[in-house]
Amino acid sequence: MKQEIIKYAEGLNASQEVFNWLNKTVKDEFQQSEVEHIIDYLVSDKSPKRLYRATYKQIKSNCDKWNASLIKKGNHIKEIEGDIEIILDFKDGFKIVKLIGKKAFEREGFLMRHCVSSYFGKDDEIYSLRDKDNMPHATMSKSSQQIKGNGNGSIHPNYIKYVVKFLEFMKIEVKDSEMLNLGYLN
């Protein structure tokens, strides 16, 4: 797991202090999605300035508070026409949309409690599973082959069928480590 965590942190351009903290603090028995979410927090502007003394428990607690503030912010962002494009409509209230505008990336990141907003303007296609109320339930990246649920966690079992149909529709392959978020082992 440690190697996947390091790759994730590298992808977010984490500071050397974050890498030092990860190497010192993170144990193999920790859940990968939780650690990835903590990394999202550690590379944010809300991260503590000095990590060398911080325990995992302290950082996790700060991360949980950060989560609550993200959700609150996300609920206030209104996407406008052109921020998203419907890619696949399942005709039951669920659809897959492509994130296009900055507001769509910010809203997705806040509501899903992960760092997808940092992907805005990068060379990647980001998709979101949305319900009838336009609330996100899964975020998928084409280039980096990631599939994330809330807080970088697994996809809720109610939504897996939609994500799998979308991946097949788009012919997107996903890294083995990300397939775990769909409940699959390769």
Top keywords for this entry?
globular; five-stranded antiparallel β-sheet; alpha+beta; 186 residues; single chain
In a few lines, what is going on in this structure?
With 186 residues, this protein is an alpha+beta fold. Helices cover 41% and strands 13% of the residues. Strand 4 (136-141) and strand 5 (146-148) form a beta hairpin.
Distance between the termini: 16 Å
Fraction in helix: 40-55%
Low-confidence stretches: none
SS field, number of helical segments: 7
Strand content: 5-15%
How does this structure look, described?
The mean pLDDT is 88. A five-stranded antiparallel β-sheet has the order 1-2-3-4-5, with helices on both faces. It has seven helices and five strands. The chain is globular. The longest helix is centred in the middle third of the chain and has 20 residues, at 56-75. By secondary structure, the protein is an alpha+beta fold. It has helices spanning 2-11, 16-25, 32-42, 56-75, 102-112, 160-170, 176-179, and strands at residues 84-89, 95-99, 126-130, 136-141, 146-148. 41% of the residues lie in helices and 13% in strands.
